[in-house]
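Batch manifest, entry 17 of 40.
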Amino acid sequence: FTYAAALVLVDTPVVQKYVKKTANLVKTPMTAYVRTSVVGALTSFIGWYIGPVVTAIFARSVGREIPGVDYRLISAIAYSSFTISLTGISGTIPLFVATEGEFTDVIGGIVGLEQTTFSTLNIVSAIAIIITTTIIYMVIAKNKTDVVTFHDLATPEFKAAEEQAGAVDPDESNVSVEEIEEKSFADKVNTFRPLILIVGIVGLVYLIYFLGREGLGGLNLNTVAFIALVMGLLVQKDAVSYARSFSKNLIATGSIGLQFPIYGGIASILVGTGLAATITDAIVSVSTEVTFPVLAFLTTGLLNLFVPSAGSQFTATATFWMPAAETLG
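Output type: structure tokens
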């Protein structure tokens, strides 16, 4: 739900227009690469499902308009700037342990985002990632001699379609006055902008009140989902547009909806059968305080080849890794 609701926020002409306006401020290829890196990192920190979409729109706009921008390189930057995402607000694991449930029972209580996402260690790590990757991009760009632009890659059919699309004014409506008058009362309600806006404003007021009272401790899986929902209501044109966008993006997130219940089931089996406790004892027996982090890193890295999602992997393995860490101190 959170992923679909967040993509509804990006899937609006208003948001995409401002992203493109920001891209128009770029004047040189090097600035294009650096800003794409920073935009990608910041938006991915906000949401790993938001960053790639926003950054792709930004990179595309820059690549089309700025002469000398290598479209292959800026595309690679747009995608790889996503690296920072798991350190951000939408990181599944910090949200899991900040939300009361099975995992907080396993680890002995709720761990708020102020201790994970917004900890000094994590913020410093995130900044280091941004600086390091941006420097790498700059070095590659500086030494690049073979430049392939957006227009070099565009096919004649694509160019023709773009020209045709640009000739149509998106603000012009093809609906006649008669068709508007023929709308039913229900249709008018569904397309009445103030209605969805009022609901969004009510949600925003509540969020300000709730987070003002709870602070960072109020951020968890539920509140992040609610924030995405409210932001979408504020920027979408009407209820019909919101519903269409949500339905479209829900399809794109279907694989995630399928995976998490499966891995949740794995975690339940591990705990319910006592297998997690057995694995914990085995890990502790061959580990020390020094070797345990290395063993955890290598083992989960191998598991990630088969469970390609940080949240899903945590769901399936936290039941024995967390108790083992606690036992080793």
